Amino acid sequence: MSLEKMYESFFTIALDMACIATTDGYFQRLNPAWTTTLGWTSEELMAKPFLSFVHPDDLAPTLKEIERQKNGHIVISFVNRYRTKNGEYRWLEWNSTHAVDGILFAIARDITENVETEERLKKSEAKLLKQAIELKALSEKMEHLANYDNLTGLPNLRLCNERLDMALATQRRKKSQTAIFFIDLDGFKEVNDTKGHAVGDMVLKGVAERLKASLREGDTVGRIGGDEFLVLLPNSGTKDEIAKIAIKIIDVISKPFSIDKEDMCIGASIGIAISPTDGTKASELLVHADKTMYDIKNCGKNNYAFYS
């Protein structure tokens, strides 16, 4: 078999789309793979400028590649879309020689399945990423709901206990002390019953803001029940310093809350327990501070006392 016939045989049986074209825009020869891939006969493809089969969005880059070939450059892995006989488009990847005497020799491979698979993977990845973001947001929301009071945004009893345990662990290492305040609002039930829950909720929010503004950086204030609050003072200092904070809290809570042009007046009873003197476990301190708070309520309210 002559060399020419061998080339002809390779051209004919090649699975990729082999072609000879001119730089003025027409196919001169096409192997059978073109018809297999696009559905057009060789005669139909050669009867029109090859650019007429290119997707409109790919015309500009295709023309640019042809100009590069005219200037002596080869084409490696250039991608565009060609129209099939049924009106769809197939993605083709081109490799081509530079132009020789106005003639181009090129091989195109149908990569449509690869492109579509990649697109599906990108969509799947985007969907998975979106789901991961949504799950993270849901997890954060659930964690927030598990640790914070929905009305005031303050830490709830669960988170207060965690922070108290941490403070007690630090206290043991540093040989310091930790104080907790068990606070019950005086007169709040009357406001809630006579003015309604909406007004009562506004008062609770106001109490939360005032408590936060009264504490040091690093202290914790939480809402642990209807009108009950807990204050945690790590490295609390002397009894006199603790008493000053209690007095400040009673003072700010006793100031009227102006709601709908009406003043709501309440007070606060505070029971105080200090670790390690009054206990070294969170449960002990909470019980002692709670008991002391009720002692205050039974002795005139709107005051504070240390556990004894």
UniProtKB/TrEMBL annotation:
Q: Which cofactor does it need?
A: Mg(2+)
Q: Where is the signal peptide?
A: none
- Where would I find the PAS domain in this sequence? 20-73
**Pfam families tied to this protein:** GGDEF (PF00990), PAS_3 (PF08447)
Tell me, what is one Gene Ontology molecular-function annotation carried by this entry?
Answer: catalytic activity
- Name all GGDEF domain ranges: 176-308
- NCBIfam families attached to this UniProt entry: GGDEF, sensory_box
Protein name from the UniProt record:
Diguanylate cyclase
